[in-house]
Specification:
By secondary structure, this protein is α/β, with parallel strands linked by helices. The chain folds into two domains: about 35-215 and about 355-440, Zn peptidases (Aminopeptidase); about 220-340, Alpha-Beta Plaits. It has eleven helices and 21 strands. It has helices at about 5-35, 35-45, 55-70, 140-155, 180-185, 190-195, 240-265, 315-325, 360-370, 390-395, 420-440; strands at about 75-80, 85-90, 100-105, 125, 130-135, 165-170, 195-200, 210, 215, 220-230, 230-235, 275-285, 285-290, 290, 295, 300-310, 335-340, 375, 380, 400, 415-420. The strands form seven sheets. Strands 1-2-6-3-7-20 form a six-stranded mixed β-sheet. A hairpin with a 4-residue loop joins strand 4 and strand 5 (about 130-135). It is globular. It starts with a helix and ends in a 7-residue tail after the last helix. Bound molecules: zinc ion. One of its GO terms (biological process) is amino acid metabolic process. Its cofactor is Zn(2+).
Length: about 450
Amino acid sequence: MNTATLSAGTLALLLLFFSLFFQTFQQTDKLQEEDNPITRFQNYLRINTAHPTPDYLSAISYLKSQAQSIGNLQTQIFEFAPLKPLLLITWKGSNPTLPSILLNSHLDSVPAEPSKWIHSPFSAVRSSDGKIYARGSQDDKCIGMQYLEAIRNLQLKQDFQPLRTIHISYVPDEEIGGFDGAAKFAASKEFRDLNVGFMLDEGQASVNDEFRVFYADRSPWHLIIKAVGMPGHGSKLFDNSAMENLMKSVEVMSRFRENQFDLVKAGLKANSEVISVNPVYMKAGTPSPTGFVMNMQPSEAEAGFDVRLPPTADPDLLRRKIADEWAPATRNMMYQISERGPIRDNMGGPLMTATNGSNPWWAVFENAITTAGGKLAKPEILASTTDARYMRQMGIPTLGFSPMTNTPILLHDHNEFLKDSVYLRGIEIYESIIGSLSSFNEVSTF
Ligand SMILES: [Zn+2]
């Protein structure tokens, strides 16, 4: 063996050593990349739980594995309706006789049109400026994972022990009304057994640096009004045709809509504080092979409206208005109201959670945000609806809250995204909230 061979051998060994070193280094780097709060969030976002075929089983199995990786958490799966599983994760408190805390989020999301997105809606691509693009990134997979990440940190970094039991519920079907999800869950024995004292559900993004919080939802009604009358020749002037009567109603309703909208435009009320009445369809006319028969006034005409009532509105008063003014029998009108969810709680009160001294949980929640260095905006009514209404119906104080500041409101929009820094900040906020709520012991009956 000569010197040259030796050097070649040494060189080969050195090369082997370095290549092994870099491989290990790369692997470690990859492992780190694969398991941190952001990648865990991205992995959840990649599970397609959009309607009409939400993959609930994969979502639940992923969340369950996350809970197992934290440890010290129990998991249960319920099925209150066939093929509509619900996951409950529980962190037992040191005093389980105290009413518990429930953190809710829904598993499903609305559909997305991939061709209208800059990144595929279930790829959860993270752009160079930290935006994570995915359907559900704001509504509401962020909170579903943030709850778990906050608990992970409380357990593993802070060695925190809750006094009250904390539950996280992952419910199906919120986006299609929650009738087979949160509604059945809230009405179940299993729910009663949880002895929930206070609950958090989803909220909405805030475009400034104040966190938004919601103490009520508006209740949706589907209203159909229908007019019948004598048909007649298109050239004839006569009273009480179906179209004439329907159009009179539409005029009256448009005036009501305008009055409500004026209050918003004048800044006297928020969008969510007025009754909205929006026409969504009209059905009339006699079809012909080329369109509609033009020389005949039809004997039936119908219109549909999306109506939303704030909890401060009087539903009986609105029902009377519909019967007397919007679809009066004196004009051959009929109507059908389909209430999409509860409008009053089980005690007959409006579906609202107090945000003052009468609700001891409010101060705990508010202080937790301040302690974490956050600012809270004036509490609002949500213009749309969430599952929170079913819990408020049971008399449980429930706030809608998603910790997203300086974020455009993109729920149900194309290119829904959430910035990584905003997501991580949200975890810190929940650490403070969950820590405070689960330690709250001043009034043990609450
Ligand atoms: Zn939602």
